[in-house]
Amino acid sequence: MLDVLKPPVSAFQDFIVLAGQATRNVFRRPHYSDDIALQMDLVGVGSLPIVLLIGFFSGAVMGLQMSRALAQYGAQGQVGNIVAITLVRELGPVLTALLIAGRNASGMASELGSMKVTEQIDAMRALGTDPIQKLVTPRVIAMAFTLPLLTVIADFVGIFGGFLVANLMMGITASQYWTTAWRALGYNDIVQGLFKPLLFAVIISMVGCFYGMRTRGGTRGVGLATTQAVVVASVWIFVVDLFITRIFVNL
Amino acid sequence: MADPTQFAKQPDSILRFEDVSLRFGSDVALDRVTFCVRASDTRVLLGQAGSGKTVLMKVALGLVKPDSGRVFLFDQDITDWPESKLFDIRSHVGMLFQEGGLFDSQTIEENVAYPLLNQRVRGELPKPAREQVHEKVVSALTFVELEKTLDKFPSELSGGMRRRVGIARAIVTEPPLVLYDSPTAGLDPITANTIMALIIKERDMRNTASMIVTHRYQDGNLMANFRYNPSSGQLEHAWRVNGASAPNPHAGLRTTFMVMRDGRVVFEGSEKELMASTDEYVGKFVKR
User: Fold this and answer.
1) Strand blocks (E) in A38-171
2) CB spacing of A30 vs B90 below 8 angstroms
3) Average pLDDT over residues B3-20
4) ipTM of the predicted structure?
5) Which residues of chain A neighbour B102 with C-beta distances below 8 Å?
6) Which residues of chain B are within 8 Å of residue A31 when distances are taken between CB atoms?
7) Which residues partner with B267 through β-bridges?
8) Rounded to two decimals, what is the model's pTM?
């Protein structure tokens, strides 16, 4: 029984150690600002088209689904309200995070994993660079900045998608839609809508780097690390989402 | 085995091992290794595969911690240093890796510039301008005759060229100590000699302390008996360099050979002593 538990527990311990070192490095010199900028470009600018697309369609679909459900109560006018709340609280952060997990946790794991199996990480240490400082910390910082921004963009584009559906197919006026959407959002929603992506960003980047840094066994190992990074990051996103939502529901 | 206390005070010592032992599980990697490399010394490390040569280099850089014994780098005891402190001292040692160890997603220019920018980022040196970095990179690549490959990626170069880029990266910061891990392994004799000529050129032009791991006796022989002649740009037999007509008895004096077997140093001495050794294992490395 204990032997079964040993590998996951020790992996989790390694993860905590890596997360601790990466976090400590945020407040320590040297800072690799070039790498932070490069990662921000990769994560932020690189993901923008797909985030726009997914945000728009998820908002539009929400609008369509809700129009039918709300029609039963004759409350079609409230569609802006529902779309705004679901997107800002839940769909925006989670969908964007899942998307970025698939896109960038895999990218980080495979990049660092390839460097690991070709001993470039050891070379880096021998040249006098802390690989965690140079590789992990910039990715975490870049992700923590860009994911909340991407989420805000996805939220907005989603609400706009809902508006198009509501306006063109249900005949709801612009002022009615935007007023209900705007009124629906409270302080609590905004805070949770920004706090979630921040945590998800840390999860995605740390998990991606963690599986990259512990890659073993050549090209197959890199593939395995990539898959594991995406799966584990996605699972943690949902688990953490549940807990945060639980906390904010009571606030 | 030498008395470990004999190196108690060595002001010009660059790299010093005192009674260093290391095991990986039940395998002995290093067994009470003691030696000292002084400024502008050359140390040639011979031994069969798995005898602990590469591990010794990793211990010298603090990449692997020894189980017992002390390691001194630039006369500082680095044995118990935390990793964060080691990064600083490592950036003052040049290292050529067995497989080159180049960053494959960076161009040759970025690879060679890496140690310079690293020192800058660590705040050890005043910030050099981009042009200065470029200049130094070009001069290091010119040194290894690869100045035309700046924009190429390591995968676009041949094995020997990659090894030369590795040398350029190791020496670009002009470190007082350069470690070469099997610089000629897996290369044809002509390319291998080119690499050795570059290593000797680096040693003689800048008076660098060099430590070279190899399994080819010829490499050691070249290091011991040949010098770089800056006026002709060629390697010459050591006793000819200064126009001497008779063999210089001091030629090869600064070159020490070490032979390793199963983690132990079984021989340490000059080339003459190496040639004279009656040990069967040591004899296998010498061309008679």
Assistant:
1) none
2) no
3) 66
4) 0.79
5) 120, 123
6) 121
7) B259
8) 0.84
